[in-house]
Amino acid sequence: MTTKDIIKPENLVYTKSRILNDTPMHYCPGCSHGVVHKLIAEVVEEMDIQEDVIGVAPVGCAVFAYNYLDFDFQEAAHGRAPAVATGIKRLMPEKYVFTYQGDGDLAAIGTAETIHACNRGENIVIIFINNGIYGMTGGQMAPTTLEGMKTATCPYGRDTAINGYPLNITDLLVKLEGTRYVTRQSVHNSASVRKAKNAIRKGFENSKEGKGTSVIEIVSTCNSGWKMTPDQSNKWMVENMFPAYPIGDLKDI
Amino acid sequence: MGKIKGAVVVNTERCKGCELCIVACPSKVLALSKQVNAKGYNFAYMANEDACVGCSACGYVCPDACISVYKVKVE
Ligand SMILES: Cc1ncc(C[n+]2csc(CCOP(=O)(O)OP(=O)(O)O)c2C)c(N)n1
Ligand code: SF4
Ligand code: SF4
Fold first, then answer.
1. In this structure, what CATH number is given to the domain that contains residue B15?
2. Whole-complex ipTM
3. Full residue range of the structural domain in which residue B10 is found
4. With 70 as the cut, is the pLDDT of residue A158 above it?
5. How far is CA A245 from CA A104, A114, A171, A240, B47, in A?
6. What is the count of structural domains for chain B?
């Protein structure tokens, strides 16, 4: 059987979701943001909720998420996505509302909004891309930057005596009464991509039940900011990010 | 027992040549072409067509959703 015989519509087992449109994504080659966008598209398509989902885009590399995902979106000011999502969800409780935020957005400028939305138990999903760096603005130190990790603003490595400690904000969110599902996933190989997708689906399903906030952290790479190839970045992430941000469910009630 | 055979089609204009699919493929099917697309990226292609088992690992990891995977059971 030749390749030509195999490539027929009836043999198709995997392809781009139609919810992810044909606009080329502006992300750097190999960026985790693309994989997570793709998973959100697949979940929205499989749950058949294209008309009922509203995303809130952050400030950061994902600021243009609405150009790629074919459903309603609102752009929020830097860090304010959980507050904007709160308003949308309270006015339209029947909708699936989620935020999509980087670590600078969620854990620096937006710390208050993140914590209070979770503490109020808003019935939203927070998708948190933790790449340990401010990607969009040129790779500055983020709250989640690891000890010793070099960035544009700590070129000799993060020194905890000067810069404080890496902020594991997801661990803090577990302790809040308002969160019902808190998980940490990654998208660096096919097994982790599948698990991350299941977590995203679970988050969306949860938000229908009115039992609180679902937080899905995706430990991610920013290969441009880290100054490595995409493959090197994945390996570096497994070795260095995972010990600080271990993968798995942290809360599920 | 039937043998599984697969094939992939890469959307060469979407591809950014990141090589993550090449690393993810357990059967070493994919490679980057010498040619470039309109954006100047060397794109992924099936360098070793016979080895593909249609497992979709390349498709799952591709950040730009460039890969369609096809699979058949050969008797
Ligand atoms: C009020 C305000 N302050 C600062 C900025 C500049 N700025 C843009 S993106 C960004 C950080 C983005 O980093 P992160 O949230 O980690 O997302 P990433 O780009 O890594 O995905 C900053 C500080 C801004 N746009 N608005
Ligand atoms: S700068 Fe980093 S986070 Fe932003 S698109 Fe590039 S790889 Fe992704
Ligand atoms: S993972 Fe996708 S973008 Fe990267 S080289 Fe393969 S097909 Fe191209």
1. 3.30.70.20
2. 0.96
3. 3-74
4. yes
5. 16, 18, 9, 9, 37
6. 1
The token duo for A231 is 């493959």
d(CA A230, CA A28): 9
The beta-carbon neighbor of B6 closest among A6, A17, A230 is A6
pLDDT(B1) > 70: no
Name the residue facing A189 among B14, B61, B68 (closest C-beta): B61
Q: What share of chain B is helix, strand, coil (3-state, %, to 5)?
A: 15, 35, 45
By three-state DSSP, how is residue A160 classified? helix
| Contact present, A56 and A81 (Cβ < 8 Å) | yes
Report the length, in residues, of chain B: 75
User: Judging by beta carbons within 10 Å of its beta carbon (0-12, 13-18, 19+), is residue A77 exposed, middle or buried?
Assistant: middle
Contact A118, A178 (CB under 8 A): yes
A33 in Cβ contact with A185 (< 8 Å): no
Give the CATH fold of the A30-252 domain: Rossmann fold (3.40.50)
| Distance between CA atoms of residues A70 and A102, nearest Å | 21
Q: What is the pTM of this model?
A: 0.97
**Cβ pair A114, A102 in contact under 8 A:** no
Task: Please list the residues that pair with B68 across neighbouring strands.
Answer: B9
Chain B residue numbers touching A20 (CB-CB < 8 A): 65
Q: What are the residue boundaries of the structural domains of chain A, listed by start?
A: 30-252
Contact pairs from chain A to chain B, CB under 8 Å: 101
